[in-house]
Structure formats: C-alpha cells, structure tokens
Amino acid sequence: MKEGILIKREGERECLTALAAMPGTGPGTLRDLFEKCGTAATIWYEGERDERLPEKFRRALVSWRTQYSFERTKENLKKYEAVVLTWNDESYPNLLRCTVNPPPVLYYCGRLLQTEKTVALVGSRKADTYGLRAAHRLARTLAEAGVTVVSGGARGIDTQAHLGTLAGGGMTWVVTGAGLDKTYPPENAALFRRIIGAGGVVCSEFPFGTPPLGRNFPARNRVIAGLSQAVVVVEAALRSGSLITADFALEEGRDVFAVPGSVYSPLCAGTNRLIKSGAVPLLSGKELLETYGWQEEVKKRGRKALPPLSKGAGRIYKLMQGDRSVSYEELCAETALSPACLASSLTELEMAGLIDVSAQQYFLKID
C-alpha cells in the first residue's frame, strides 16, 4: 500500500480524519462502523474486504481512498497553522463529547482549552441596531466575568458577539460552516485573526476545501450548541437559522435563553416566540451569570491612559460612555458635528484603538 502506519496513534488519527472527510459518512455512520471493525485504521486499510460492512460503503471507500491525500491534509494544516482534534483525544471538549452525535474531527486554529464556562450567543445576520447593541453588551459582560463566548462568525449578531467578547478582554470561539481555508464571510478575516491572537479559536468539523454551502450550517449550529452550557438567541426572525441552534440545545438538555424584542419588529418574532414556548427571557448578562452562580468578577485590566483627543473626538468618546455603542446617525444628531469633523473624529478614535466599528455601529473598546 502507498500509505503506511508508522505509529499506531498517528495512523489512527490520520485515518479517522480521512474517514470523517469522506462524503456521506457522518458521526452516526462512523460509530456504527467502529462497533463492527474497532478502529479507523482497520476500516481504512481493510474495510473493502470486510463483509461486515455495507457493500455500498465498501465501494465508496475504495473510491475515496483514490481521492483523499494524507499529504495534502498535512500541508494544509501546516499552511493554515491548524490542528486536528479527534473524539479519541483527551482534549476534545467535554461538553461536545457528551452530545448524541459529536463530530469525530474538529479542525481548529488557536488555543482550544477545556472549559465548561461557555455560552453561545447567536442571532440574525440582518440584525437591527437593538440586536447589535444587545449582542455586544451581553458578550462583553460575559467576557469580563471569564465566560467563553461561542458563536458562528457570521454577519450581524455573531460578529457583535465576537467583538463584544474581545472588548471585554475575553476568549471567543468561532464555529464555521466551511473549511478553515474558506473564510466566511470574507470581510471577517481580520476579526478571525484578532480572535486567534487574543487566545480564542476558529474551528470547523469540515475538511479543507469545503465551501460555505447552506447545507453545512445545521451541522455547524449543532456544534455551537454542543460546545455551550447555554444558548442565548439575541435577535431572530421566525425562520432564522439561530432557532435551529436553540432546538439542538434543547435536544441536548442545554438551557436556552432569548432576549425579548419589539412585538412590532419581524426581526424579533423568532425570539419572542421562543420565550412564549418556554425559553428564559434574558435582560442582561448579569442575569445569566447569577443563574449559574458565576461570580461577576470583572477582570482587572489595566486602564489605558487616554491619549490627547481633539474636541470632536472627546465629545464622541464621552457620548459613548453610557451606551457603549451608537450608530452613525445617532452620532450625527447628538454631537452636532459637521460631517467632515465627525468623520475625522471617528478616524482619530479608531486609530487610537478606542473604538470598534461594524455595520455602521461604533463600540467602545475600553472602559
């Protein structure tokens, strides 16, 4: 054979990774195969002759072995500074391992640490100002108390959950619906690098080369729920994919919270319906911390001395102290600055590292 097993553990890891990448072979199928054959290496190298295995699978295995390249996977892991974690590893997340069908393999960049103090914040990609503010504020409060925030890295609520966590000096995990070489959405590439640099993680159960297809996202949502002790749906319409995450959480016996929204807004119809169906209404991050007995010990981060600010920048910074997030339109109305002065003042604050901007919302980065 062209592929040999030099060290049993390495060979098992490689073979499990190869089988997990095989089209049509999900976690449940792999568990059934292992019950018959024992190991991934046995299945990979001897499965085609094992009559205990379904004939359809054996034919597919022969074909897949001609397509899959161990070397290409190793090259991609090196290129993207990624790691493969399998369900045989002690460092596999405990909360995820306890789910009905955990993914056999996780590819990740960053530092995936064992912790059960994890909360998922999810919601609509097309969120309004209310939802974006709520996500950012909730994430920041949780991060300051040492909670790891899990989300999907998508536009809207997910992005603000990650940004809020970074603003609170915490760790956040991104679970994507594509291979690690397919950054999605592409405009969040810089955000993902920041997350990794801050000690967080970008992870996926999908192998390199997998595009962000719609059919991938239910599986990604299951992993988000599985990694989390609780799921908070911040803002969601009736058909939002974040409601799928909530359903998965309930199936796994995890707690589901929802942020109440306007009864007149279709963007909040899904979250309000969740509350009507029994989800716990959540008004603040502090409430969630109290629910689990997590002490609200805000991390003692050294306060940065404010650099000298222009009059316009100082006015904006002072305005943001209470809300921590404002829209461009609100800044125009409340500062009475000319468009040119407002633009230069915002640029000044961004360059000074005092604010973040996303979807025309401006957020403080420090207290």
Q: Can you walk through the features of this model?
A:
Residues 84-292 form the Smf/DprA SLOG domain. Belongs to the DprA/Smf family. With 367 residues, this protein is of the alpha/beta class. The protein has three domains: 12-68; 95-292, Rossmann fold; 311-364, Orthogonal Bundle (Arc Repressor Mutant, subunit A), CATH 1.10.10. Helices cover 45% and strands 13% of the residues. It has 16 helices and twelve strands. The strands form two sheets. Strands 1-2-6-5-4-3-7-8-9 form a nine-stranded mixed beta sheet, with helices on both faces. Helix 9 (189-197) links the parallel strand 5 and strand 6 (201-204). The protein is elongated and about 75 Å long. Residues 1-10 and 299-303 have low confidence and may be disordered.
